[in-house]
Design a protein that fits this description.
two-stranded antiparallel ribbon, single chain, Cytochrome Bc1 Complex, Chain D, domain 2, 299 residues, 57% helix, 7% strand, mainly alpha, 4 strands
Length: 299
Amino acid sequence: MSDFVSDFWSLWVAGITLASVLGCGLFLWAVSIKRTNAKVETTGHKWDETLEEWNNPMPAWWSWLFYITVVFGLVYLSLFPGLGTFQGMLGWSSHGQYDDEMKVAKETYDPIFNKYLKQDLKTVAADPEARAMGQRLFLTYCSQCHGSDAGGARGFPNLADKDWLYGGAPETIEASITGGRAGVMPPWAPVLGDQGVKEVANYVLSLSGHKHDANLAAAGKPKFEQNCVACHMPTATGNPALGAPNLTDNVWLYGGTEAKVIETISKGRNGVMPSWKDFLGEAKIHLLAAYVYSLSEGK
């Protein structure tokens, strides 16, 4: 492993880079020398009987353009990183530039974000300017999964209605964004079997008034009570503490057809929302949570 971190490789890269640039300059000088023989040679290529390609030196202006390129390359390599571990005389780095830009951004925007951080989340949600800022944050970081209108998609909750897996209180929404969520439903096919899964699926469909087979639903009810109530509760109204959904409404995260419900029960589901604490920080999350809360407020 030490072979890959030794100074030799830095010198190797620097040597090859400089040799390549200087070699280009030397080659350019060699082909730019004016020929002294009276008769200019041809390359031997001939078309249409008399059309020949002559081996003349490049025009001076063209040669100088290449010389300028070589000189520019040497100057660039002396000022910026490019020769192994040599950082360049200016000391520039992409990481340093990023840090400088982030420092300027923090000095510019942190006072604005912190102003709202001191306010109650409901108060922030009622502020049009704060909601506009939260919407921009949402469109940048959240719309890829939840949609630009927050209407969700298959496997990604709708954030614009009143249905919440973990609860819709302001502090709960903020906690979801801050720490992320991991919702896991185990596969039940090994326990219930194919027929048992179908029976439970029909019972689940019956809870929300969906079209179902009454006989299968009746057979699935005791299986549901034996295996599913620990998470979804005896009333099947769900458990926000676990993120277990309410099965009595008409809201379906993965689809409400018999085939989709069977697939969910049979194979299980794994829903993950990442934590945004380290990336966004407390102040931005506060604005984002206020915007999400405002989407369903009053609905």
